[in-house]
Amino acid sequence: HTHGDHAGGLNSLSKQCPNATVYGVKSSNSDASHGYKQISDGTMIGEYIKVVTIKGHDSDACGYLDTRTKTLMSGDSLQLYGIASWGCLVSDLGSYVASMNKLASMDIENILTSHAYVPNGAYALGKTEVKKYIQDCIDCIDITKTFVESLYKSGVTNTAEIEKQYIEVMKETYFDFPSGGFGSLINQLIRGL
């Protein structure tokens, strides 16, 4: 996807390596000013790498499945509870849940992510761990939704206050739980109530 921490150096890289081919899913992100070869779900890059769109974190998020080892390089697509102060950055909750369900139905042996997400870290090795990692992504959303819904129905409707209470409660379970970054997700959940 075209967030700066993943694609921010593409313009400089393109100048240094003018003959390199850069692949990307169609993006509405204004940072995607570099020219890249458009790819979509199922596109094969070379003989073994298959593109898997994993929308939700962003509209152009994708992963790459090494079909030889069934290893998915998922980028930022599997957010769990997020990282550090970034929290769980899901721009489109419906797409995120659909993407997690899509991955759950696939034959994936390993997952390598871009960051160490709370609570499962940066990888899952073996089918059992992969299924758990993906299910935990779905469960994190469900747990957050239940918490937000409970507070909202009790009269706490301010996103910042819900986020503050949510972080306090979750830090009791996860010492490395992010210290912010849940506002967008909370707003999406409130809109769904």
List keywords for this structure.
193 residues; 6 helices; alpha/beta; 6-stranded mixed sheet; single chain; two-stranded parallel ribbon
What's the layout of helices and strands?
Layout: H1 4-7, H2 10-16, E1 23-25, E2 37-39, E3 44-45, E4 49-53, E5 62-66, E6 71-75, H3 93-104, E7 110-117, E8 121-125, H4 127-153, H5 159-171, H6 183-191
Parallel strand pairs: 1-2, 6-7
Antiparallel strand pairs: 3-4, 4-5, 5-6, 7-8
Q: Considering DSSP H and I runs of 4 or more, what fraction of the residues is helical?
A: 25-40%
Rounded mean pLDDT is: 90
Question: Which class do the helix and strand fractions yield?
Answer: alpha/beta
Radius of gyration using CA atoms only = 18 Å
| Neighbour order of strands in the largest sheet | 3-4-5-6-7-8
Molecular structure report:
The protein has helices spanning 4-7, 10-16, 93-104, 127-153, 159-171, 183-191, and strands at 23-25, 37-39, 44-45, 49-53, 62-66, 71-75, 110-117, 121-125. It is globular and about 55 Å long. The protein is an alpha/beta fold. It has 6 helices and 8 strands; from the N terminus they run ααββββββαββααα. Strands 3-4-5-6-7-8 form a 6-stranded mixed sheet. A two-stranded parallel sheet has the order 1-2. Strand 4 (49-53) and strand 5 (62-66) form a beta hairpin.
Give a summary of the structure in a few sentences.
The protein is α/β, with parallel strands linked by helices. It contains six helices and eight strands; from the N terminus they run ααββββββαββααα.
